[in-house]
Structures are given as structure tokens and as C-alpha cells.
């Protein structure tokens, strides 16, 4: 396949990967969906407005319609076939006496000076968020002209990557270290750019502050950075004050799921592993609420079905104990993780917590930023062309400043 020439400097053992579940697994999913009841109609699930943080979540009617679509119209085999049109790999990484088997999609360039680019997803996302981004790169460049080596991993515990150790804690810092070993092992120890939204933004920040191989960092999520005073907010532009209001609404009214992940990960992990319909309600709400325009149901089902078949939910929410556990840590507001290297930031107005540029400047050497007029939390999925343009424009600026 094109774009499959792994760099000759790679030291990791990399194996091709093919996405596939058995017919029995497919039949099991359909059976569970058929026998899963939907709760009774209530005042809350009748009047709920998923687009508002101050409402009650998704409506019963949305879940009912989504269930029927999943049962009668959705085709997982078609989704798997799409996954397998990309170059999927797994790589075994030894870290602290534990073997991580990391799945990733690689779009490798034949250009001698191609810039290695690591794209990190978050929760409830997956590598699926970046498929349209990969398509955009492929439509612009062939493997001889592609200016980047694009690496899209499944984070530990997500999708086709194995979960963290069962006998010890696992943190964002651990994930960052594992992904750094992935990039260095692929032959990119001389330098690479890391990008992330949601959990991926924290990973990218930690990488930028701790890895010598990371030369520049781009993020589209920066929750945790707050104003120093009310006067600072009062002096912001009207649009930034609106952003601050949306962020406050999320923290006050929209973060119950995160507090559950952070304080009761065992309970919620087991609950959501017991029913595909429950998983759809939990994850579907996020895609509906955090996007600028509600995404096609098929895209939501791609992600939820992937989570279901790979049993991701209980394996992947470990990071929330750092964000919403006993000692909250958000990295973006920690001086220890100030980015001295070139930092880029894309602001999408319907992000779940759109942090103004003026605040992001406090967290690193911000050399590039762009504010968009539309788009939300899943920027790579919602605005793939704009996302790619942001990455390209940032790298043009950052790569020069990093003097590689």
C-alpha cells in the first residue's frame, strides 16, 4: 500500500494489523441491543436539550432512534473495511517492566525532510477522529510529496492498544513516555511535532516539557488555565468573555461524567461494559453536546461500536483520576509543564471549554494561534480541512523556530 515505507532508522518491531471481529461478536452485539430496554419516559428525558450544559442530557427519543439505526441500518463491516484501507500497525514497547502493544495508523512519507507528526486523541474519541484528516493529507499529497510522517496511535487502553498494567497505577506521564518511545522507535528521535486535543492535549504538553525529541507542540484544548482575577475577565473582549462563560458552564454543569470517571472509575467502567445501549447513551451525549453541529449518527456509532468491541471504556478512563481525583492536576496550568519550545493553539468556539488565547499564552512559548468561527471539541472530525491547514501553518512557523 502507499505511504507504508517505515523509516530505515526504526528500531521497533512493527507488525501489520487488520481490524476484524467475528460474526459471533456481531451477533452478540445485536442480541444485546435487541433485549436492552430503554428507560421509561420522564419529564427530564422529554425536555432535555443536549446542546445546553444546564439541561438534562440526551432525550429518550434520541436514544430510541439511535438504537433502531444501530440495529437496522448500521454496518460495522463497512467501518472495518474503511479502517483497513489505512496502514495499521502494532508495536511492542517495553516500559518499566511492562509490555505495551500499541496500535497506530502510519502515513509515512518518502520525502527525506518530512516532519514527523504525532496526533493524539482523547476521550471519548479514538483514532477514528483523525481518519478524515488522513484523507485530507492523502488528497493533497502522494507519498513522494507528503511533507510529514503522520502517526495516529490508539492511546494505551483505547481501541486496539492493550490496557495499562493491572498491578500498578498508570498516569498521563506514563502514556507520554510510552508514546515518546513509539516515536523514537519509529526512527524519529531526531525530532517530531506532537498535537493533541482533550486527553491528547495533556499528553502533548507533558511530551513537550519532558522529551528532548519533541521540538514543537500544537493543542486545541487547554482546560485548566484560569484568569488571575475577575478584572482580567472584565478586560477581555466580548468573544473571550463568551468563551469564559462556556467554560464555566462546563465546569459547573457539564462535568459530572468526568467526576464519576475520576472518583468511581471502577463502578462506571463496569456499568458501561454491561450494556451497549448504556455505552451509546454515555458517549453519544458527548458527541452531541461538544460539537458545533450535531455529527452524523454514523460517526457516533463508529466510535461507540469500536469502544464496545474493544472493551475500551473501563480500560481507558484512568487519566480522569488525575483530573478529578483527590489531587486534581490539569498540566496546562502547572509551571512544571510550561512549554519552552514553539507552542501552537487552535481555538474552536464550541469547544467544551474554549480557553481564550490570552490565557494560553501564560502556559508556554506561543508562536502561532488561530481562532475559528465554528467547530467544537472534536476538531479533527468536525473540521478536518481547517485542522490540517492549522497544523501545516503551525509547523511552517514552528519548524523554523526550532532550528532543526
Automatic annotation (TrEMBL):
Q: Which UniProt keywords apply?
A: Hydrolase
Which superkingdom? Eukaryota
Q: Which molecular function terms from Gene Ontology are attached?
A: epoxide hydrolase activity
The active site is formed by: 198, 320, 377
- Biological process annotations from GO: epoxide metabolic process
Epoxide hydrolase N-terminal domain residues are: 14-130
**SUPFAM superfamilies listed in its UniProt record:** alpha/beta-Hydrolases
* InterPro entries, alphabetized: AB_hydrolase_fold, Epox_hydrolase-like, Epoxide_hydro_N, Epoxide_hydrolase
Q: Which family does it belong to?
A: Belongs to the peptidase S33 family.
The protein in question is named Epoxide hydrolase N-terminal domain-containing protein
Amino acid at each position: 500500500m502507499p505511504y507504508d515505507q517505515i523509516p530505515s532508522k526504526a528500531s521497533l518491531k512493527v507488525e501489520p494489523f487488520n481490524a476484524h471481529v467475528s460474526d459471533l461478536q456481531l451477533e452478540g452485539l445485536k442480541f444485546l441491543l435487541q433485549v436492552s430496554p430503554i428507560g421509561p419516559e420522564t419529564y427530564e428525558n422529554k425536555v432535555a436539550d443536549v446542546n445546553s450544559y444546564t439541561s438534562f442530557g440526551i432525550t429518550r427519543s434520541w436514544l430510541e432512534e439511535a438504537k433502531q439505526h444501530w440495529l437496522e441500518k448500521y454496518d460495522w463491516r463497512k467501518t472495518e473495511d474503511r479502517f483497513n484501507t489505512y496502514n495499521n500497525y502494532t508495536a511492542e514497547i517495553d516500559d518499566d517492566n511492562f509490555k505495551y502493544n500499541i496500535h497506530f495508523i502510519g502515513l509515512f512519507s518518502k520525502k527525506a525532510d518530512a516532519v514527523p507528526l504525532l496526533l493524539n486523541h482523547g476521550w471519548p474519541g479514538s483514532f477514528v477522529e483523525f481518519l478524515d484528516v488522513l484523507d485530507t493529507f492523502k488528497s493533497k499529497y502522494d507519498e513522494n510529496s507528503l511533507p510529514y510522517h503522520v502517526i495516529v496511535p490508539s492511546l494505551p487502553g483505547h481501541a486496539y492498544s492493550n490496557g495499562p498494567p493491572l498491578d500498578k497505577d498508570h498516569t498521563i506521564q506514563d502514556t507520554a513516555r510510552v508514546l515518546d518511545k513509539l516515536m523514537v522507535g519509529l526512527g524519529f528521535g531526531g525530532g517530531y511535532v506532537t498535537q493533541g486535543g482533550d486527553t491528547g492535549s495533556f499528553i502533548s504538553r507533558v511530551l513537550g516539557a519532558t522529551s528532548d525529541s519533541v521540538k514543537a507542540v500544537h493543542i486545541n484544548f487547554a482546560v485548566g488555565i484560569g484568569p488571575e482575577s475577575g478584572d482580567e475577565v472584565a478586560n477581555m473582549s466580548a468573544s473571550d468573555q463568551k468563551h469564559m462563560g462556556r467554560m464555566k458552564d462546563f465546569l459547573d454543569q457539564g462535568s459530572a461524567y468526568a467526576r464519576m470517571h475520576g472518583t468511581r472509575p471502577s463502578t462506571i467502567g463496569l456499568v458501561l461494559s454491561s450494556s451497549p445501549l448504556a455505552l451509546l447513551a454515555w458517549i453519544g451525549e458527548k458527541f452531541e453536546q461538544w460539537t458545533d453541529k450535531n455529527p452524523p449518527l454514523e460517526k457516533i456509532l463508529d466510535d461507540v461500536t469500536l469502544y464496545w468491541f474493544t472493551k475500551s471504556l473501563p480500560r481507558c478512563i484512568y487519566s480522569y483520576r488525575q483530573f478529578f481525583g483527590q489531587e486534581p492536576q490539569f498540566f496546562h496550568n502547572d509551571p512544571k509543564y510550561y512549554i519552552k519550545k514553539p507552542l501552537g493553539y487552535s481555538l474552536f468556539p464550541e469547544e467544551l471549554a474554549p480557553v481564550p488565547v490570552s490565557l494560553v499564552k501564560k502556559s508556554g512559548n506561543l508562536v502561532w494561534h488561530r481562532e475559528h468561527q465554528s467547530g467544537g471539541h472534536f476538531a479533527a472530525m468536525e473540521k478536518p480541512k481547517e485542522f490540517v491547514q492549522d497544523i501545516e501553518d503551525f509547523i511552517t512557523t514552528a519548524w523554523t523556530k526550532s532550528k532543526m
